[in-house]
Amino acid sequence: MEMKKPIYHKHDIIIVGAGGAGLRAALEASKGARTGVISQVFPTRSHTVSAQGGIGATLGNVEPDNWYWHMFDTVKGSDYLGDQDAIEYMCQMAPEVVIELEHMGLPFSRLPNGKIYQRMFGGHTSNFGERAVCRSCAAADRTGHAMLHTLYQQCLKNEVHFFSEFHALEILTNNGAVNGVLARDIVHGEFHVFHAKAVLFATGGYSRLYQNTSNAHINTGDGLALTMRAGFPVEDLEFVQFHPTGIYGAGNLITEGVRGEGGYLVNAENERFMVKYAPTIKDLASRDIVSRGIMQEFREGRGVGPKKDHVLLMMDEIDEDIIRERLPGIMELAETFAGVDCTKEPIPVRPTAHYVMGGIPTNRFAEVALGSMDSPEDTVPGFYAAGEAACASVHGANRLGTNSLLDIIVFGKVGGAKMVEYVNSLPDFIPLTESAGDRGRAEVDRLLNANGSERMGSIMQDLRESMDENCGVFRTDESLTKQKEKISELRDRYHNIGLDDRGLTYNLDLIEAVELGHILDIAQVVVEAALARTESRGAHFRDDYPDRDDQNWLKHTMAYLSEDGDVRLDYKPVRLQPLSVESFEPKERVY
Amino acid sequence: MGKVTFTILRFDPEKDKKPHYQDYEVEIRRPGMMVLDGLNQIRWEQDGTLAYRRSCREGVCGSDALNINGVNRLGCITHLEDLKTPVVIQPLPSMPLIKDLIVDLNDFQDKFFLCKPFLIPKKPLPDLEQLQSPEDRRKLDGLYECILCASCSSSCPSYWADPEYLGPSALLNIWRFVVDSRDVGADERLQLLNDRHGVWRCHTILNCIEACPKGLNPTQAIGGLKKALVSAKF
Questions:
Q1: Inter-chain contact A44–B148, Cβ cutoff 8 Å?
Q2: Which residues of A touch B216 (CB under 8 A)?
Q3: CB contact under 8 A, A337 and B45
Q4: Where are the domains of chain B?
């Protein structure tokens, strides 16, 4: 089949992804340069919309707080894998960017004095771990929805140019610099080349790799796979966060804000078990600790139900009025997905794949930066990343709740500003190469003509179930080796798939086939990086290596994928030096 | 656990002259299955050509508004066990059909854009947040939760009859800003609505209230706008 020539576009800046990070970047970039945004879905369908509990910032509206405590909590929460310059930058910026969002119209909940409402959240403490602190700025439990819509509204006001329902397929490069993106118009099936001086990826995470997940269907890690296929590495993919409170059986998120408002977890013996695992802040410990606590209860036979495979989130100590006013969204979710009236009954929960700490490696300016143990970080001209797709790394081995909404706003904004500086300093567009876009078009062409015997749905199902089984909260050499073999088998099956839909118009079959190829690449990196990392740190817990090993493993994984599908692992040092304060030395992590 | 028949409207613009219906058997595999789970089962296991939109699968992104047994709902939060069988699934009414259950929402989205759906704040802005009392903030409840799914507008006979009518969704979203104590743009917005394609096209048929999957009340919002217009005497 002869391929039609792509439709050509030229923008100073192209942003891929229209969630919080992409829209915040677009808002900043459009002030100083011609900016276009490509999104697989209409912007307000992006996954930021599902964020519930709030955005972390030390406004101090409820009680004294300061960014240095926030920084300490984030470094400790990251199990010391976070880069401390980026963390300092993010925590310092937090109050300013939250006030900007309020000025844009974000409908934050309010305190009686009219200021932004703040609630407690996991891992956020006052005075270096003394007690939990009210730091999460919330719009009831719909903060992500309120934020995404506010940012979209502002983008409309600023006349940002959107290409909605366009699927990115290839990062275009010329001699080491990024100069555009190939995308396909999902509705009409045509290819488009977006020639740009700068490209920012804000394409989200890949928690759809798991069966039991809080994530939207679209979170298949497309941006990371395209990054690897363009020859660039991805960082720390073995660190996947399992949120402690996913609705049992469905996986949907119940915000940590429930525990911030006074909720707590009990096992089958009606015991508040978190006191054993985090004596000081108990149910408000960081997510890795709470999720492992729950799984440990299952292992010791104290899970609830015939399969002893969930625990109960108790809300009896929260007034019904407070639930209705501050947690209306989870009331709806509990009723819809668990059949539970949470003003009267507990919600059955278990850990659910929720967030990925790793991503496209960047410095604190959202500039994609490569590096290794021996060579210092060096930026890739024209290439930027922000949000869950990026690894700055502000979350290290484990993210604190409310720091993801903060991350997307801070690094979206700085990425947008840095791109404007860069494109204005670059006199001309870097020309496209002869072969620009060929790889992405060939892939679509191959899939549209694929007539193998394998069904995509069954490969996807096998992948997700086996990842739950072998690469979840607890991992061992044995489980990971088994999973590595499984993925190799699934990759072979993928090469033998056949599509039902060969049309051009809104071909969801094709989109999911492309995504499956992407997520198989990612699965392979996750498993091989997890297998190599013979220690336990943050969300990555190895039963066979239960301790953190700073001597050998206080470093970031950098994974490359070769043309023939082999993974090569390299490493780079953690940026331990903050900007203006002393480094937080790694310590034992107790909550 | 039994089977349910889905009767789905199919249309492939590359092959079909007009839409037709196709039946599928969906296996009930666990309690609490949603319509979206059924559609996924069909596509992953039986017929990959079926097209529909979906993302968050928990009722907050607004992708999968569908007409299910004659009512506009979100597929991802509609329980199969609550539905009469066969379950008849059609795209949202009155919107141009692209393929199967996918409609063109460009016009719907343009109307939202026309209404200046963004905060127009008092200037100069304070250094810290603009203060808002909890009572004033409560006025936004029931409004800001709109997910732009188009269930309401596509259920509205006035919207079907008048291609230029802004429709309940856009009007609810304007009201969200008019009642925001931080906003000073009421006058410029209200002027946009004071014609025959604006608020006066609403004849309080109330379909939009039944259609809204978030339990919002666009008719009440439109009533508020009408009152504001009358008292402002534009």
A1: yes
A2: none
A3: no
A4: 3-103, 106-231
Whether A49 sits inside 8 A of B60 (CB atoms) is: yes
Q: Nearest C-alpha of chain B: how many angstroms from A174?
A: 34
| Best CA proximity match to A261, nearest among A338, A337, A330, A213 | A330
CATH superfamily of B3-103: Beta-grasp domain (3.10.20.30)
The one catalytic residue in A135, A287, A292, A533 is A287
Contact B60/A at CB under 8 A = yes
> How is residue A108 written in tokens?
């934050």
Return all residues near A193 (Cβ < 8 A) that are at least 6 apart. A6, A7, A8, A9, A172, A180, A181, A182, A432, A436, A437
Q: If we measure between CA atoms, which residue out of A291, A258, A260 comes closest to residue A274? A: A291
Q: Is A287 a catalytic residue?
A: yes
Distance CA A17, CA A40 (A): 7
Cβ contact B44–A457 (<8 Å): yes
ipTM for the assembly: 0.98
- CA dist A57 and A127 (Å) reads 15
Residue-by-residue pLDDT tens, chain A, 591 positions: 445 789 999 999 999 999 999 999 999 999 999 999 999 999 999 999 999 999 999 999 999 999 999 999 999 999 999 999 999 999 999 999 999 999 999 999 999 999 999 999 999 999 999 999 999 999 999 999 999 999 999 999 999 999 999 999 999 999 999 999 999 999 999 999 999 999 999 999 999 999 999 999 999 999 999 999 999 999 999 999 999 999 999 999 999 999 999 999 999 999 999 999 999 999 999 999 999 999 999 999 999 999 999 999 999 999 999 999 999 999 999 999 999 999 999 999 999 999 999 999 999 999 999 999 999 999 999 999 999 999 999 999 999 999 999 999 999 999 999 999 999 999 999 999 999 999 999 999 999 999 999 999 999 999 999 999 999 999 999 999 999 999 999 999 999 999 999 999 999 999 999 999 999 999 999 999 999 999 999 999 999 999 999 999 999 999 999 988 899 999 999 999 999 999 999 999 999
Would the CATH topology of B3-103 be identical to that of B106-231? no
Tell me which residue in B13, B58, B131 faces A252 most closely, judged by beta carbons: B58
Instruction: Look up residue B143 and give its two tokens.
Output: 């409004």
Query: For A17-93, where are the E strands, in sequence order?
Result: 35-39, 55-56
Least CB–CB distance from A49: residue in B48, B50, B56: B56
**CA-based nearest distance B171→chain A, Å:** 15
| Whether domain B106-231 has CATH 1.10.1740.10 | no
What's the CA gap between A193 and A243, in Å, rounded?
Answer: 38
Instruction: Please report which helix (H) or strand (E) contains residue B20, including its range.
Output: strand B20-27
**Cβ atoms A338, A539 nearer than 8 A:** no
At residue A323, φ and ψ (nearest 5 deg) are: -60, -45
For chain B, the C-alpha Rg in angstroms (whole number) is 20
Query: Among A107, A112, A503, whose Cβ lies nearest the Cβ of B140?
Result: A107
Residue given tokens 């844009």 in the structure block: A104
> Are A530 and A471 in contact, with CB atoms under 8 Å apart?
yes
Q: Which residues contact A276 (CB under 8 A, 6 or more apart)?
A: A293
- Taking Cα atoms as reference points, which of A61, A63, A55 lies closest to residue A131? A63
User: What's this model's pTM, rounded to 2 decimal places?
Assistant: 0.98
